[in-house]
Every structure is written in structure tokens, then in C-alpha cells.
Amino acid sequence: MPSIVGPIKINSVGGGVVNFGDSFYLSPKSSSKTNTGSGSLNTGDFICTNNGLSSTNPFDPDVNDQNITANA
């Protein structure tokens, strides 16, 4: 069904979806990349990590890793 939307003001939208009127399919998309060293993303109780020499190389020569295109 059609809808009538009056005056609006949106200051910011951070990671959400703004929808006015009818919609059949909403598919928000996002991507991110994290560079971490060994043993840095462990979660849980009583974690013991023994790392000798750890080095993280965040250099990325191909620039595009996770392309987000199209609407579906």
C-alpha cells in the first residue's frame, strides 16, 4: 500500500537501515578487515598463550578484498 511521508530530518545513520513506505526486501551489507597478532583475539576464561616471535603485516597490495555490489 502506498504511504504518505511528511517532512523528515535525519542527522545521521550509523550501521542501520532507514525505510520509508513499502519495501519487499531489505538487505543491509557491510564488510570490514581486522589485522591482529597471534593470540590477540582469544576469548574465554583462563587463557594461556605462549607466543615466541609474532609479527603482523597489514600490507595489502590488492586493495579490494570484499566487494559489496548489487542490491540482492
Automatic annotation (TrEMBL):
Domain of life of the native organism: Bacteria
UniProt cross-references to Pfam families, sorted A to Z: gerPA (PF10676)
Similarity remark: Belongs to the GerPA/GerPF family.
Protein name stated in the entry: Spore germination protein
Organism per entry: Virgibacillus byunsanensis
Lineage: Bacteria, Bacillati, Bacillota, Bacilli, Bacillales
